[in-house]
Design brief:
Elements (H helix, E strand, L loop, with lengths): L7 H16 L20 H40 L2
Helix pairs in contact: 1-2
Length: 85
């Protein structure tokens, strides 16, 4: 059977890079549509608000998962040290 292990530094770089990519997605700014009767623009502010809420929830979830994945790498490294590679 082959070796199984983790390069902790590479693991953390990869996990952090994925979180950072999501961090570069900015919330949408509200549109300044004062008055319109065009159906497709009536709810644009609500759509933007929903998008921003969803984006914030995704960023929070990703931050939590990033911490968990880094801990997973640490646990694997500790297991390797304890039980041999």
């Amino acid at each position: 059977m082959g070796k199984v292990g983790v390069d902790l530094q590479e693991w953390q770089i990869t996990v952090d890079r994925n979180q950072a990519a999501l961090g570069r997605v900015d919330p949408l700014k509200h549109a300044n549509i004062k008055k319109t009767d065009l159906k497709q623009f009536r709810n644009v502010d609500q759509t933007i608000e929903n998008f921003n809420k969803t984006l914030n929830a995704l960023k929070e979830q990703t931050a939590n998962e990033t911490r968990q994945l880094i801990q997973l790498g640490l646990n694997k490294q500790n297991d390797d040290a304890q039980y041999g590679k």
